[in-house]
Specification:
Layout lengths: L6 E4 L7 H6 L1 H7 L3 E4 L3 E3 L9 E7 L5 H14 L3 E6 L3 E3 L6 H9 L22 E6 L3 H6 L3 E6 L2 E6 L2 E4 L6 H11 L2 H10 L10 H24 L1 H15 L2 H8 L4 E5 L11 E2 L2 E6 L5 H17 L4 E4 L8 H11 L4 E4 L17 E2 L2 H9 L7 H12 L5 H15 L2 H16 L9 H13 L17 H15 L7 H11 L6 H22 L27 H14 L4 E2 L10 H10 L3 H14 L5 E2 L10 E2 L2 H14 L4 H15 L10 H16 L1 H31 L3 E5 L20 H10 L9 H9 L5 H16 L1 H6 L2 E3 L2 E2 L6 E6 L3 E6 L2 H4 L7 E11 L5 E8 H4 L6 E5 L5
Parallel strand pairs: 1-2, 1-20, 2-5, 5-14, 7-11, 14-15, 15-16, 17-20
Antiparallel strand pairs: 3-4, 6-13, 8-9, 9-10, 12-13, 18-19, 21-23, 22-25, 23-24, 24-27, 25-26, 25-27
Helix pairs in contact: 6-7, 6-9, 7-8, 8-9, 15-20, 16-17, 16-20, 17-18, 18-19, 22-24, 22-27, 23-27, 24-25, 25-26, 27-30
Amino acid sequence: MQRVISTYRIQLNPDFDFDAAAKVAPYIRSLGVSHVYASPYLQAAPGSTHGYDVVDHSQVNEELGGEKAHEWFCRALGKNGLGQVLDIVPNHMAISGPENRWWWDVLENGPSSRYAVYFDVDWQYSEIENRVLLPILGDHYGRVIEAREIRVERHAGSFTVRYYDNTFPVDPRSMKPVFERAADHADSADLAFIAGSLDHLPPPTSTDRKSRRRRHRDKEVLRAQLDRLLEEQPAVRRALDEELERLNNDADRLAELLDRQNYRLAFWRIARSDLAYRRFFDINDLVGLRMEDDEVFDDTHALITRWLHEGVIDGLRIDHPDGLRDPEEYFRRLHDSAPNAWVVGEKILHPDEQLRQDWPVAGTTGYDFLNAALGLCIDQRNESAFDTLFREISGEQRSYHEILTEKKYLVIRELLGSDVNRLVSLLTDICGRHRRYRDYSREELHQTLVDLIVAFPVYRSYVRPDAGTVTEEDAQLLRSVVAQAQTTREDSDEELFTFLLRIMLLEVDGEQEREFVARLQQITGPVMAKAAEDTAFYCYTRFTALNEVGGEPDRFGLAPHSFHELMRERAHTWPGAMLASSTHDTKRSEDVRSRLAVLSELPERWESFVRKMQEACAGFRRPASTAPTEDGTQYPDGATEYLMYQTVVGAWPIELERLQPYLEKAVREAKLYSSWTNIDPEYEAAVFEFAESMLGSDTCRSLIQELVEEIREAGWLNSLALTLLKLACPGVPDIYQGNELWDLSLVDPDNRRAVDYELRSELLARVSPDDETDLGEALAAVAADTEHGLAKLWVTRQALHLRRRRPVLFLEGEYQALDVSGEKAAHAVAFSRGGKVVALLPRLPYTLGGDWADTTVHLPEGRWFNVLSGEVVSGGAVALKELCANFPVALLEKAPGAD
């Protein structure tokens, strides 16, 4: 396998398929990248724009070009000396249609399906035992039936249930009454025989191997017989079609047939409280996989493993490992199948949390680094000013933690109630077997369990109930969680919480107890993710540069010494982890965050801007007739208006066609006045009209343009600093598609727009010197550019080429902070890698003002070549005003033999 030194993330979709990706391979190689890092491309649901909705793990996505185009893509990468890293999705599959043949088989055959054990379905849950609830109807079931919106359709000898664009298989046994009536009308003994034979099929509840095989064999025989009969006897075909028409026009008969299916169609809102399968978060058509089952792992990873063994791919990014029953066991199985593969997990770490060191992975996907690096750009001295302004504008006096706690309760109640209810049912059964806890009501157990889930400060714990192991780290976490949960209510039951703690620590033995621990750990992550990233981040808008995946919006910056300590630890523990700055999931691009970070340096100027914008926009607000209070509330609310001001400054220039979709997502995610499941058209219209009026106002545009011009250069300097950090710190840096130039994108879908690779190829040619020691022409091109961000491309290209020349140094070299002294020492970050490479960059550039005064950095002895400016300097005390005279950041390589 080819060692992963750096990656370039591409988002494949029908408009940027394998052929299109193959064409940009020469550019990516010229940039200096070692590996293309591709979004998921196994067969996804029709029309998928992202690939995370896999329906078939055994083939390549046809909408991206299929197998032949994939082979061409891989050959193009190899021809250009590029390896490949692939994003895969082991946690769940899409179940929206017949394209997922495993799920289709489950719906047709129920628990007797070979694939029933593949999916995380509780077949014994609720009153519809041995059936799956499918919440896809737009109204109550009875109304939909009576409106004739559900029909049974024939396809040769097969039958489906159709509800608009949704189709579902029909259990063959359920068709007996229809066949019998049609046989009578057609006077067909052959059809009557088939109808009678359906009774001999083993029922869908038969799960023994013999019955299951007989059901699958016999139903296909009967289906083939029916195919021939209908083809050969038009009269029988007409009689059957007429009978189906009568069935579809008789609500009672249709309901009776639907009741005999292995699923129950239901109003979509039921999913909030009553669902028998694990989902990806709250998305009903993404069902969880039982990856702990050997057969499931083998069937879902066969193609991936083959590619790893053949050298088609060198590494994997594992999506949402926290959703798995036992992430450690999954990673171990993956490691055993491909020991040399580079594997990173999309594990979202709390700033005080460490990745489990016994996991056989290279590390995380880099959000921990992203937030630490951003922290360097924040002026911690000005936090109180931002607190005061946000509280005044929004009226929100609570802390971020208090808001997050409230949103966890909201998410459990509105989005993930069904998952919690299944857990409560399991806990009820457990308590029923222990006499001291038998008399707790379901309501009491529900409240206690919810308080416990809300008290988790991190995504999840990693107790391994199937292996019977609890680490001391997990034990400490769970004890603190229980202690915190007990303080939630005055009437909290200490004895019940103690019992729950004993269960979680595996001190209470039993199959249900182990199941409870596994299920509990799978739900705390979705609660945290939905409450934080997808809700609280859009409510607590104090300083939105900090509202990033894996970040804590109430942590205002990071001191340089703390950053250095994190990087030293990273070099020792996770030297091969990914380094990210923008991803397909970030809330804002690195350049938007870099610009917003400048505002932390000038709170008075920011407040002045906000006051002037409020005054200019006063006439754009409207009274709220549906506000939750009657105190003269106006739309938009203060927090959303404040978010809007930060957004336009960070992403300027931005027009309504980009801003409005962002605001729609923001207000629905906030779930204050509108949401994805309960849209408030009046509120949203008010927000959109406000935005349109703001962007249409000459006064507002002038205010925005004036502030952006004032902070633009400092924002670009922050971006260059973060780019160099990512490329020089311990780990494997990832370039998100297009972000090698300035990119002012917002959250998806804004950050998944098409990338202009022709422009990037042309610009890269301008900064690709024929002689790496003569950088004059390239630097002249960089200096002449004021539009695209050639300086960022230059840093990216030069650092990536240096990494490619000296991979061991960057992947294994020690990280050592360098001493900086002088008047502006607090504005500099400097470090060496393995004593052979030095990176130096500014922080807080606005207040630095471009004047380093007497500040010096102490370089190790020797001669050093600055690959960004072409200058040579000697070790010892070097003045930053000289080192950064021709380029604002420095990347120094020690000359050979200069030790």
